[in-house]
Design brief:
With 333 residues, the chain is an alpha+beta fold. It is 28% helix and 30% strand. Helix 1 packs antiparallel against helix 6. It binds adenosine monophosphate (AMP) and magnesium ion.
């Protein structure tokens, strides 16, 4: 991070413009615990934006662990009891989460729920638990205990008390679904930003690349690197600086190391995943944050993840990166 120049974020501002029953942007803070915005560059029928709202509302209602009526809460309630029949949406996300848990050797682990609860991360009742409490949840984190049956469309947590939490992957899934919806309305290009989970849909008309700035985690108003992507590219960052609390002068962030069930401390300050699918980038960014560069290298060298890349920033070094795709370039700012 040698040039600490400030950078003008090139993503269009999220204006809410309405024009004769047509609009070009959507902003909502009602879903997925964050601000979700979709900015198009032409005006489209109001109906598209109503559909987007409906889509996010549905995804939120399926995945919200704080809502006892959500499908994810139901899966958790039936842990150790019986498989739960789920919607296509929840099945896809659980199935993808299991694949990323496997390839990341559990750095991304969807069964992190009990540890997330203990630290009060999703309820925002943050607290530092005692050592015994932390020990007591460690045996409740193991993705091998989750079965997703494709034929039956069921999800089963085999161990009683274990909980899944899809907060590290659901925003990416929502972005992919929203992009698909844009396609059905023949939208040519758009910028989707779901709480920092960016999806750059389509191509820019002049053929120039989409540019996304990656923040310097130590100086949040500065951009340390720039990702240039030609077409349909997701850029997702997991950062310890995004959500954290302080207790007795120590900062605790929201990404948990499944091994220790404590906020992960490995020197990584932020991890960005880039690639064609937002659900994969979302899960990978969390995995890269926990597993660091060695894990990121291992994953992007495997066939299924060959179109993905990473940018990892640590306290001790300048950023480290490796981007395989021809669609993407990363430069230092
Ligand atoms: P992200 O900001 O996408 O990295 O996701 C962080 C969210 O994912 C947290 O708020 C938790 O809900 C959940 N989470 C935390 N640690 C992990 C982990 N190691 N694996 C999977 N999900 C996690
Ligand atoms: Mg994530």
């Amino acid at each position: 991070m040698k040039n600490k120049l400030t950078f003008v974020f090139l993503i269009v501002p999220f204006l809410f413009i309405s024009c004769r029953g047509k609009r070009n942007s959507f902003v909502s803070s009602d879903y997925l615990g964050t601000v979700c915005s979709v900015s198009t560059f032409d005006n489209y029928p109001q109906e598209l934006f109503v559909q987007l709202d409906g889509l996010l509302k549905k995804i939120d209602s399926l995945f919200d662990v704080n809502n006892p009526g959500s499908e994810v809460s139901r899966i958790n309630r039936f842990a150790g009891i019986e498989p739960v029949k789920v919607s296509r949406e929840v099945f896809v996300v659980v199935d993808t989460a299991i694949s990323v848990a496997q390839i990341s050797d559990g750095a991304f682990d969807l069964t992190i729920g009990s540890a997330v609860d203990l630290w009060g991360i999703n309820s925002r009742n943050y607290k530092v638990p005692g050592d015994e409490e932390v020990e007591s949840v460690r045996f409740l984190v193991d993705f091998n205990q989750v079965e997703a049956d494709r034929l039956k469309g069921t999800v089963f947590i085999k161990k009683e008390g274990m909980k899944i939490d899809l907060g590290g992957i659901a925003k990416g899934y929502a972005a992919d679904c929203a992009a698909e919806l844009l396609g059905t309305y023949k939208v040519k290009r758009a910028v989707l930003d779901f709480g920092g989970n960016i999806y750059l849909y389509g191509k820019k008309p002049d053929g120039s690349p989409w540019r996304t700035g990656i923040k310097n985690p130590l100086e949040k108003n500065q951009i340390a690197a720039v990702v240039d992507g030609k077409e349909n590219i997701s850029v997702v960052t997991s950062g310890g600086y995004e959500r954290f609390f302080e207790s007795d002068g120590t900062k605790y962030h929201h990404i948990i190391d499944p091994e220790t069930c404590r906020p992960c401390e490995n020197g990584v300050l932020s991890a960005t995943a880039v690639g064609p699918s937002s659900i994969i980038c979302d899960a990978l960014s969390t995995a890269f944050f926990v597993g660091g560069e060695s894990l990121a290298q291992k994953i992007i060298r495997t066939e299924a993840y060959r179109d993905y890349g990473y940018i990892i920033m640590t306290a001790s070094e300048n950023y480290r990166l490796d981007v395989c795709s021809e669609n993407v370039m990363v430069s230092e700012n």
